[in-house]
Specification:
single chain; 374 residues; alpha+beta; two-stranded antiparallel ribbon; globular; creatine kinase activity; ATP binding; ATP-binding; Protein-arginine kinase
């Protein structure tokens, strides 16, 4: 599969197809594995990485879901193409920085992505829409079992799977979910909720994982420990916490609409106005406004399909996607102008938010107002 074919259409998990993704956008499972008796990628010579890749790549490409998939060495991808894969969460920023001896193998629907010679010899991930951590794990575990028959994994009976970073020892599993939390942000509850999540041993990161900031009110929650716990225990705890955070978010949205409907309507209306008419807009501002568009769709201010439109925009207005769309390298100023142009085009037929009294307090707008003297 060619790169252009891979990114021509968004994956189901990008648009929330057949899933409730109003709060939990995506679930992701990642497994780290290494080959026995081979130096970890960071300590290997170029020749050793190349030899390891020759062993890994045929086994990965031979997996049934990878039939007709995308397989490419990173040295054969341009910097923009690699950044597009990062923006789509198909490879990591660390992997994108690598070249010789590294490769990416991606299933055509982009549900499975395997990074070869990243920090570990093999990092494989599954992504699904909504809160489907268990489904993602079961699918990826089946691929892992198949690869274990073909590859000599580095495994210790006491420590479990051996990994470059000690924090990944044991199961080698990282489970995470991406959550959209504008209600908690607008109600100033986000700090205490995230602090509570951190206290129970889970990590909260930005849109692209460790070391990145939250943009568009998007937060990634994941496990931190992998040693001494089973995969089932890790997933069950994360499912429970994410469900609780999602419930807090839903309650916050309802309370905001009940206590301060004018503020909610104003923010959503302003976001719509800016996105529909801006001629220059940077990435951070655009993501924050698209976040409010997404919130407006969930609260009934827009038609149901607006959620999918917003989800597609979250991806398509990222810097590398804009440069790929334009077919050339863009300056920051050019990106801001093209981003605004794409947003205006996508929202051209989207009606203004429906901010009638029925939306906020249940009154019938068609009933004439009467005074007590009538």
């Amino acid at each position: 599969m060619r790169f252009s074919t891979l990114i021509k259409y968004p994956a189901d998990w990008m648009t929330g197809a057949n899933a409730d993704n109003s709060v939990v956008l995506t679930s992701r499972i990642r497994l780290a594995r290494n080959l026995r008796d081979e130096p970890f990628p960071g300590w290997a010579t170029r020749e050793q990485r190349a030899a390891t890749l020759e062993e890994l790549r045929p086994a990965v490409e031979g997996l049934a879901p990878m039939k007709d998939g995308f397989s490419q060495t990173l040295s054969d991808l341009s910097s923009v193409q690699k950044q597009v894969l990062v923006e789509r969460h198909l490879i990591s920023r660390e992997h994108a920085a690598r070249g010789d001896g590294s490769a990416a193998v991606i299933e055509r629907r982009q549900m499975y992505s395997l990074m070869l010679n990243e920090e570990d010899h093999l990092r494989m991930q599954a992504i699904r829409p909504g809160l489907e951590l268990r489904e993602a794990y079961e699918g990826l575990s089946a691929l892992d079992d198949e690869l274990a028959q073909a590859l000599p994994y580095a495994f210790d009976p006491k420590l479990g799977y051996l990994t470059t970073c000690p924090t990944n020892l044991g199961t080698g599993l990282r489970a995470s979910a991406m959550l959209h939390l504008p209600g908690l942000v607008l109600s100033d509850q986000i700090g205490q909720v995230l602090q509570a999540v951190n206290k129970i041993g889970l990590a909260v990161r930005g849109i692209y994982g460790e070391g990145t900031e939250s943009l568009g009110n998007l937060y990634q929650i994941s496990n931190q420990s992998t040693l001494g716990e089973s995969e089932d225990t890790i997933i069950r705890r994360l499912e429970r916490v994410i469900s609780q955070v999602a419930e807090h978010e839903r309650n916050a949205r309802e309370k905001l609409l009940e206590d301060d409907p004018d503020m909610v309507a104003d923010k959503i209306g302003r976001a719509y106005g800016v996105l529909r008419h801006a001629w220059v807009i940077d990435s951070k501002e655009a993501l924050n406004h698209v976040s409010l568009l997404r919130l407006g769709s969930d609260l009934g201010f827009f038609t149901n399909d607006t959620m999918r439109l917003a989800d597609a925009l979250l991806m398509d207005i990222q810097p590398a996607h804009l440069q790929l769309h334009s077919g050339r390298k863009l300056s920051p100023e050019e990106r801001d102008a093209i981003r605004a142009e794409i947003i205006r085009s996508r929202l051209h037929s989207l009606p203004p938010p429906d901010i009638r009294p029925t939306t906020r307090n249940g009154d019938n707008p068609n009933t004439p107002e009467t005074s007590g003297d009538a």
